[in-house]
Design a protein that fits this description.
single chain; Alpha-Beta Plaits; 3 domains; alpha+beta
């Protein structure tokens, strides 16, 4: 088993990373480990355990701003916000169920570092859009700060956009400042039955472009025995009722069933965690323009699938090989990430979609700027 280092202070973290850089040693950042099974296994790489950076630094509900340390559990953060009737708008989630385990291991830092966003990303933005600032240590062992505690910050480079979704390949985050939002007092999920994939994508497009204010839209090809196209509305009860009437007119002929509160929330949790698909086969996350989603599904054989983000996100469990999946994503102008597979498959197939040459050169130059010695270039991705 690889060596594990657990710094508790920024100085200890700086020293550990500087020593690795000087010794040309690789490190793998880890906190809760909820996403360990994504990417190629790295059994011989020393682990930099970030759970020593734990706790809430500052929370101002009136200003809708939270500053928290990297290794703080996501569940702890969500409970804190729920006590103030607030939440994280980008709909973060724990990968435990998706990867065949249980919930509870994810940390807020790991979620932001991986850029994890759920169904509400469609209406409220991604994790990177809510990261106001951070503190971190570079691959050279130097501590630095970026961003601020205010929503409008126009000084310097917007490094938050680069760091969120970097999967620990650039820096070691120690502290995050996030924008939070009020929790809607009412939620309803409206269900249209019987639409084929093309009709479902068209209906979701009309709904999302309408005044109904749809918070999330998804399509399940076989839910409780038939296709189901889902629309979630959030807000005050009176507003939700009025917008539901508007949505029915926008979608067109046919009844809309409704799921309220807990029933609807449980279904969206299952969609977000992709547990409505078989858990014993490789899982692909394919991001495309919504209008191309059905073409991707049609190109893959023996596929179990569902659409989220109005068709912009295709979750697919398929017997097709990686080349076929990525060719289908390329043809649709998108990209495919291998989220779940056995260790042998993950060793042979890169998790991330191969970038175009120009993009690859740009990514490499960014990594060199943050991590000149390649400390975080550990082979996982």
């Amino acid at each position: 088993m690889a060596e594990s280092l657990r710094p508790d202070t920024t100085q200890q973290l700086c020293d550990a990373i500087a020593a690795a850089a000087a010794g040309q040693t690789k490190l793998r950042l880890r906190a809760g480990g909820s996403k360990d099974a994504i990417g190629s296994p790295t059994p011989g790489v020393p682990v930099l355990d970030m759970r020593g950076f734990h706790g809430v630094v500052d929370y101002d509900p009136a200003e809708l701003v939270l500053t928290v340390k990297f290794g703080t559990p996501l569940a702890e953060v969500e409970a804190l916000l729920a006590n103030e009737a607030q939440m994280l708008a980008f709909d973060p989630f724990d990968h435990g169920r998706l990867l065949g385990g249980s919930r509870g291991a994810a940390t807020i830092g790991g979620v932001v570092a991986a850029g994890v966003s759920g169904p509400q990303r469609l209406s409220c933005g991604a994790a990177r859009d809510h990261l106001l600032g951070f503190e971190a240590v570079s691959g050279g062992g130097e501590a630095f700060k970026a961003g601020s505690r205010v929503v409008k910050n126009v000084t310097g480079f917007d490094l938050s956009k680069v760091v969120a979704g970097s999967w620990g390949r650039l820096i070691a985050l120690t502290q995050l400042t996030l924008r939070v939002v009020p929790r809607p007092p009412s939620r309803v999920t409206l269900v249209r039955r019987g639409l084929d994939p093309d009709a479902a994508v068209a209906a979701m497009a009309r709904a999302l472009g309408s005044p109904a204010g749809v918070a999330a839209a998804a399509h399940l090809p076989a839910w409780q025995g038939s296709p189901a196209t889902l629309f979630r509305l959030d807000g005050f009860p009176e507003s939700v009722t009025a917008r539901a009437d508007t949505l029915g007119k926008v979608i067109g002929a046919g009844p809309l069933d409704s799921l309220r509160d807990d029933a609807g929330d449980a279904l969206w949790d299952d969609i977000r965690d992709a547990v409505l698909l078989p858990l014993d086969r490789p899982l692909w996350r394919i991001v495309v323009a919504p209008g191309k989603a059905t073409a991707v599904v049609a190109a893959l054989d023996a596929v179990d699938w569902m659409f989220d983000w109005g068709g912009g996100l295709v979750w697919a469990v398929t017997a097709a090989g990686a080349d076929a999946v990525r060719a289908a994503a390329d043809a649709a102008g998108g990209h495919a990430t291998l989220v779940r597979a056995d260790a042998e498959t993950r060793t042979a197939i890169p998790a991330f979609h191969p970038p175009l040459p120009g993009v690859a050169d740009l990514e490499a130059s960014v990594r060199r700027a943050f991590d000149p010695a390649g400390v975080f270039d550990n082979g996982r991705f």
